[in-house]
Structures are given as structure tokens and as C-alpha cells.
Design brief:
- The chain is mostly helical and about 220 residues long.
- About 75% of the residues lie in helices and about 0% in strands.
- It starts with a helix and ends in a 5-residue tail after the last helix.
Length: about 220
């Protein structure tokens, strides 16, 4: 049974075993997998090492995450999930109460944190370096990271168009352009080891500039 299995995994000393939910166990597994992928890449990552790092049995690991590809996807999905929650936290009703530019800046700051921090760039390097041998890496990164983050921004832009605040023929295309303007230049320089990842202050300055420039071309004109 699941409770018995997790109780055995949780018992690493004397005393009564602590029963751990699958959700809690999965979080430990994903944290351990993140470290393992960073240290050894995808090809060199060991499922046994991940189980050890998470303090669970391999039986529990394979029950919750059947393959290495699923494990990698879970690592990415966890990071993207935080970004999606930040966008959801920017209440749609607040736009108009807070400035539209400020709302867009918040989204771009969240996106900048997601894509420009050292760990994310490390994951991107891993994908680019190994996706030819392991096509599932590229597929997982595209579907879980690139597509989901892009759709979240495009949906937000489309909602502002429906409210009559923005005038965009293609919110999806606009979202792609906005994302590129926000991250492409600094991300490329970090990928090529030309600089360190931008700090919070630089991300905020860049978000402010990009939001202002973007909105100058697509605000709905009032009569």
C-alpha cells in the first residue's frame, strides 16, 4: 500500500515512522532530480542516485515517476508552475486599478526571473547539448516550458484586448515578440559565458523598459 511504502521510506531512524503523502514525496524526488541533472547531465543522471538523494526507495520513485524523461519533465514543470502562479496572482480585475504598464512589468519580471536565473540557463544548456541524442528532452522543454509560458502571456494579452485596453491582431505573436525583447539578449550573453545572469534590479529595469516600449505601440486608441 502507498502509506506503508512511504512510511518505510520516511523511517530513517528510531521512533515511529512519519507518514508522508505522495505530493510531499514527489517534491523531495524533484528536488533531488534537479541536483542530479545539474551535476551529471541527462545521460549521466542516475535514477538510483535520485532515489537516494530523496531518501526514498527505487520502488517508490518508479511508481511516482516511471521514467527519466518524466523526471526531467517534472523538474521543468515545477519551475514553470511558479511562474504561472505569479501570473495568476496579477488579478485581472486589478488592471485599471493598478496601471496597465505596472501589471505588464510584473509579468515580465516574473518571466525574467524564470528564464534568466542561473539554474534555468543550466537546464537550457543541458537541453541544447543533449536533445539530439535524447529527443524527449527537447519535446519536454518545448511543451512544458516554452509553450506553457508563452500561452500564459498570450492569454493575458488577449484578455486585455477583450477589455478594450490593448489593440493586437495576434496576441500569440505579440507574446513571442515581447518575450524575445525581454530575455533574448541577456540570455544569449549568459549562455555564451559573456556575463553573469542579471540580478533582480536589472531584471526590473529591463521589464520597465520593455513594457513601456511594447505598450507604446499597442494601446487602444480612445476617441
Amino acid at each position: 500500500m502507498t502509506v506503508v511504502e512511504n512510511a518505510k521510506d520516511a523511517c530513517r531512524g528510531r521512533g515511529r515512522p512519519q507518514v508522508r503523502s505522495d505530493e510531499e514525496t514527489l517534491k523531495l524526488i524533484v528536488d533531488a532530480a534537479r541536483s542530479e541533472f545539474q551535476a551529471n547531465g541527462y545521460a549521466g543522471a542516475s535514477m538510483n542516485a535520485v532515489a537516494q538523494g530523496a531518501g526514498v526507495s527505487t520502488k517508490t520513485l518508479y511508481r511516482l515517476v516511471p521514467t527519466k524523461a518524466d523526471l526531467f519533465k517534472s523538474v521543468i514543470s515545477t519551475r514553470i508552475g511558479r511562474f504561472l502562479l505569479e501570473i495568476d496572482g496579477i488579478d485581472q480585475k486589478a488592471v485599471g486599478v493598478i496601471d496597465l504598464q505596472e501589471a505588464l512589468e510584473r509579468i515580465l519580471i516574473a518571466y525574467g526571473r524564470l528564464t534568466l536565473e542561473k539554474e534555468t540557463i543550466g537546464i537550457l544548456r543541458l537541453v541544447l547539448g543533449e536533445c539530439e541524442r535524447f529527443p524527449e528532452l527537447g519535446e519536454a522543454f518545448f511543451q512544458t516550458a516554452i509553450r506553457r509560458s508563452g500561452e500564459a502571456i498570450a492569454d493575458w494579452l488577449a484578455e486585455q484586448c477583450r477589455k478594450g485596453l490593448l489593440d493586437l491582431d495576434d496576441p500569440k505573436l505579440a507574446a513571442g515578440s515581447l518575450r524575445g525583447m525581454m530575455i533574448m539578449e541577456p540570455q544569449r550573453c549568459v549562455m555564451l559565458a559573456r556575463r553573469e545572469p542579471p540580478d533582480e534590479a536589472e531584471i526590473a529595469r529591463r521589464a520597465k523598459f520593455c513594457a513601456k516600449l511594447f505598450l507604446s505601440g499597442c494601446l487602444r486608441k480612445t476617441a
